[in-house]
Design a protein that fits this description.
This protein is of the alpha/beta class and about 500 residues long. It has a domain of about 120 residues. About 25% of the residues lie in helices and about 30% in strands. The chain contains 8 helices and 30 strands. The strands form 5 sheets. The chain has a 6-stranded parallel β-barrel with strand order 19-21-24-26-25-22. A 4-stranded antiparallel β-sheet has the order 1-2-3-30, with helices on one face. Strands 12-7-28 form a 3-stranded parallel β-sheet. About 40% of the residues are buried.
Amino acid sequence: MTSIDTGRKGLRRFASALKSCASAPHALGLGVRRLVGDSTGNATMLVAFAMPMVIGGGGMAIDFAQFYLWKRELQFANDQAAIAAAWEVLDSGSSAKMTDRAKNAFAVNEQITASFNTDPVVQLANYAGGVGNSVIVTSSATKRLPFTSFFTKGATTVSVSSQAAFTGGATISSCMIAVDEHSGGAVTIGGNAVFTAQCGIAALSDSSKTCTGGYDSSGTCLGWTGQDAIDDNGNSYEIKAGSIATAGTISDTLAAKAEANGDTVIEHATNLADPFEGIEPPSSEGVGPGTYICKATGKKTQATIDAFNAGKADTDKLVLGTAYPGVYEGGLSLGCNTVFKGGVYFIRGGTLTINGNYGVTSESGVMFVLEDGANFKINGGADINLSGMDEADLQNLGYTAEEAHKINTMLIFETDGNDAKQNNTLNGNSNTFLNGALYTKNNILDLSGTADVANACLLLVANKVNLTGTLNMTKWCKDPPNHPTTIIYGSVSLVA
């Protein structure tokens, strides 16, 4: 190979090297462009940026779930404590042990917060215008929450409050019962009436006087609607009933007077009842007319006497001034000192009138059945001593032993359809002794005028009862055979 060939090869290698150098910047730029356009790592970068928020959100969710779990359990336990404390005050009539009972109820109704809660705080409070008629319980639980405490540098506290109101609760016996279920003023007392017999008053009416105008800072209602079931008319009366109960409400004035004299006052009672509901009086079907004659004058009167005595022994013959059982059309009005033979007297329309001018007694148990619009008026003045039929007599009339026990000593019994045009009136005096039950479920009973009924074993059950005028009822027999005893179950309600 010549020197010329060797030179040519060298030149070619040099040219190739220059070409490579010239193309190098383009290759470098192409690599950079490819790197910039590559998106295969974006997801990783986004996850990296979002991880603090994801972790923080999860931590907050866990903490808030824990917070609400504590609050829910604590609230439930606190509610049960308030209810238990209210029942304690209601059952015992004292707040001495209400905190202990609240704590016991609180403890058995919590688990998760048991190790870090405070003891519940229990106190009596006023509710809806009442005084000391509710219980408020507060409690709290404090503990660090894992995530939240990282920022707050402290523990989290959950606080709850519960309020339970209570009413009623007692065992009562009632000698006067109004059975109308909805009317206001089912029992009304007014005038200068005195009722201090301490034998109990009850009204089945649910009529209520409700505060709809709100209360001012002193607890005074700013506007009322409705009417009390047991109401008053004026404030000159005197009341010491022993107990006053109704399914509705009681006049504030009357309730205050009664409570000041030591009476038990119960509103919104749920289990008051008509003691004679479902029992019917004897039927007058097939019963002949009754006979009552004061003076044997006139041919018609003598004919009645002769007809009554026909075929009877001397001991069974009619006696003037003696009333005999049977049907009395248009009523029965006494015209002389009178003795009632034992049995049933059906007053068919008109009025049974027992005037105060004559002495009245019953030989044995009697029952007056009011039908076809009949009513009665009993006015004191002379001695009146009447007794209702006992259980043996009632069973002889066809009543079962259970029914006879319920209506024991029933003296006046009104039929279902009896719709008297006038009220029934009892206006006795200190010599008026009525021993038994007066039951007029359809009509009003007025205890009025100068009635002074003493030493009686009366049970008065009427549609409504008015105690007015100068009524004076001060004494009742100590062990009445027919006064119903009612257990009033108090009520407790969670109000906040």
